[in-house]
Amino acid sequence: MENKNFIKKLRLPIIQSPMFIVSNARLVIASSKAGIVGSFPTANCRTLEALDESFSEITAALGTGKDALPWSVNIIVSKMYARSNDDLDLILKYKPPIVITSLGNPKEVVEKVHEYGGLVFSDVINLYHSKKAISVGVDGLILICNGAGGHTGDLSPFAFVSEVREIFDGIIIVGGSISSGDSILAIQALGADMAYMGTRFIATQESDATDEYKEMILNATASEIVKSNKITGVNGNWLEQSLKNAGISTKDGGFKKTLSDLKRMIMPLIKQKLKVDFDISKVTAKRWRDIFSAGQGVGSISNVPSVEDLVIELEQQHTKSKSRIL
Ligand SMILES: Cc1cc2nc3c(=O)[nH]c(=O)nc-3n(C[C@H](O)[C@H](O)[C@H](O)COP(=O)(O)O)c2cc1C
User: Fold this and answer.
1) Could you give the CA distance from residue 38 to residue 25 in angstroms, rounded to a whole number?
2) Relative to the CA of 102, which ligand 1 atom is closest?
3) Residue 295 Cβ < 6 Å to ligand 1
4) Fewest CB atoms less than 10 Å from the CB: which of 28, 62, 120, 247?
5) Is this prediction's pTM over 0.70?
6) Ligand 1, atom 3: nearest CA belongs to which residue?
């Protein structure tokens, strides 16, 4: 696939980002048919047979070779992920137009995917890892910024995009709290090529999230997203209500009696910084499945449309936002 050219043919420059538990072949197909790029993590398929089936369903719907609609798969490149080599073999069999790597060194994936003409994007949370990925020839960098669903970054996109743009003229994709057409336009104004949107797609008809999860997304605002490294070992963003349901305290009670007025004013500001205080070994709720992840973009989500309708809605917001400022 030719670098960057595919973006111009999209309805909107969005990658519906890969999400553990949530993404599936249906979501990928619906996204790519709606004019954006669908993706899913290989780890969502419990077995290699299931992964083979998903790939075959997707390629049957989206085509193969030069005529395929763009779609993507996310692979964890790490010795900690036992299936990494086998998943890569299946990727080479089905040749997704874009492969997204997480965690380790993407060098081998870059070499092999380039051989069949695919593009490789790597997700990064700082300049150090961006430079490493650039040095092995990735086509795109996915800058995971502050407020992202799943494992989050800490940097502001204002800072991160300009630092990376100075050293990289490939495709820059930005992830973190992007849930509206206005935000997509904003990251384009910063110099990015595409938006990486996860949380917004949890609340769609095609996602595998439960109704309880979708409902919690609809009801939450940014200040009800708690950042903690206690759930998985690295910083992730979690819906406060699901932490509470799992019996996990977010340690905000101390302000209640004596400083209630002050609390109302400052809690939304400081909640992001509060540490979650609990012993994970005593928690029986399953992370991801019962303890729900979401990014700070939850506040602008108020419906559970089909992916097709969502892309129309995002396009209308994007157009309106453009006419407001241009
Ligand atoms: C529930 C959930 C599961 C996720 N699982 C993965 C995953 O398996 N692999 C991955 O690379 N990123 C994963 N992510 C991160 C997303 O791909 C993406 O970086 C993030 O959703 C972008 O931020 P946003 O949610 O604020 O839009 C996950 C995010 C969420 C919300």
Assistant:
1) 9
2) 11
3) yes
4) 247
5) yes
6) 19
CA-nearest residue for atom 21, ligand 1, is 198
DSSP type of residue 44: G
Closest atom of ligand 1 to CA, residue 209 = 1
Question: Over the stretch 176-232, which tens digit does the pLDDT of each residue have?
Answer: 999 999 999 999 999 999 999 999 999 999 999 999 999 999 999 999 999 999 899
Q: How confident is the model at residue 266 (pLDDT cuts 50, 70, 90)?
A: low
Q: Of ligand 1's atoms, which has the minimum distance to the CA of residue 44?
A: 8
* Distance in Å, CA 262 to ligand 1 centroid: 34
**Among candidates 86, 82, 83, 109, which has minimal Cα distance to 96?**
109
Q: At what angle do helices 48-62 and 25-33 cross, to 10 degrees?
A: 20
- pLDDT for 81-125, tens place per residue? 889 999 999 999 999 999 999 998 999 999 999 999 999 999 999
Second CATH level (architecture) for the domain 5-209+303-325: Alpha-Beta Barrel (3.20)
Q: What's the 174 CA to ligand 1 centre distance in angstroms?
A: 12
Residue type, 43: A
Amino acid at 67: D
Probe residue for ligand 1, chosen from 20, 76, 99 as the CB with the greatest number of ligand atoms within 8 Å = 20
Using only C-alpha atoms, the chain has a radius of gyration, in whole angstroms, of: 19
Give the span between the Cα atoms of 168 and 141, in whole angstroms: 9
CA distances from 239 to 93, 227, 256, 279 (A): 38, 9, 21, 18
Tell me what the mean pLDDT of segment 319-323 comes to.
97
Ligand 1 centroid – CA 90 distance (Å): 22
pLDDT tens digits for range 128-145 = 999 999 999 999 999 999
